[in-house]
């Protein structure tokens, strides 16, 4: 495998934000092809912003985020960003996963319908095909969204807090689906708040506190020291600071974690 093949996503001094305020500062490093990474950090630490930067809905303020060979991305936003009152059934939501490939106005083939029904079965929602989205429980909606990811069949999968408000059984099922995507060689990044879950199921972790705190094998990334540093940075935020003032305040934290080319060595394992 060439090094270009190993690098699925590359960040080079990437800064992302809104209006004139940066939310993710000067991130450098590579996401290895086929890796399974948890993105961890406190509220407002830039996790969702980073996913939006990878998808491309948010353009860099500076630096770059490059997806190798413009790989397709399946992106699941936080449930709070979804409009549940949208008048659609489960089958319509899952069908949307085929739009990028088929186009909005093309008719779907019998094969496409089989793909959609198979995905609905795979997430355990058989019998719910015709149900309106606004009648689903939170866990059922999350299953339907996972079915949409399945039909998208993308090599890169980004999930923003997919385990929020799901019960133990649904959680186990969603984890199994993520693991099957990982075994199939897809590159998967998931925003997760529960650190025990991360330690149990995610080989690699990226810990954010607006700037990168640590990134590598989960056991190395989530040391008490790194978690303490992340919380200290978190407390030091000034929401009203002009962009990059926060960066200079936090420069020491960036200097000693050695991300970028150094962190890349972590990615041989997993
Ligand atoms: N659309 C927006 N416009 C302006 N500022 C935003 C916008 N979205 C996020 N922010 C700000 O960017 C910063 C990072 O937010 P982000 O949503 O990436 O954090 P997060 O780590 O995903 O948080 P959480 O765990 O609470 O979901 C926060 O200060 C937030 O207020």
Instruction: Output the helix-strand order.
Output: HEEEHEEHHHHEHEHEEHHHH
- Roughly how many Å is the radius of gyration? 19 Å
Q: Roughly what percent helix? A: 25-40%
- Which ranges are low-confidence, i.e. pLDDT below 50, for 5 or more consecutive residues? 1-5, 245-270
Structural class: alpha/beta
* Order of strands, widest sheet: 5-6-7-3-8-9
Number of strands: 9
Q: Quick check: average pLDDT? A: 85
What ions, cofactors and ligands are bound?
adenosine-5'-triphosphate
Task: Please report the distance between the alpha carbons of the first and last residues.
Answer: 16 Å
Number of helices: 12
Biased composition (Basic residues): 260-270
Keywords: ATP-binding, Ion transport, Nucleotide-binding, Transport, Zinc, Zinc transport
GO molecular function: ATP binding; ATP hydrolysis activity
Family: Belongs to the ABC transporter superfamily.
In a nutshell, what does this entry contain?
37% of the residues lie in helices and 23% in strands. It is α/β, with parallel strands linked by helices and 270 residues long. The longest helix is centred in the middle third of the chain and has 16 residues, at 168-183.
Give a structural overview:
The chain has 270 residues and is an alpha/beta fold. It has helices at 3-6, 47-55, 90-95, 99-102, 110-122, 138-152, 168-183, 195-201, 218-221, 224-235, 245-249, 251-255, and strands at 7-18, 21-32, 36-40, 62-67, 73-76, 156-160, 187-191, 204-209, 211-217. The strands form two sheets. It has a six-stranded mixed beta sheet with strand order 5-6-7-3-8-9, with helices on both faces. It has a three-stranded antiparallel beta sheet with strand order 2-1-4. The chain is globular, with a radius of gyration of 19 Å. Bound molecules: adenosine-5'-triphosphate. Adenosine-5'-triphosphate (ATP) binds at residues 18, 23, 41, 43-49. The site of adenosine-5'-triphosphate has 10 residues, from helix 2.
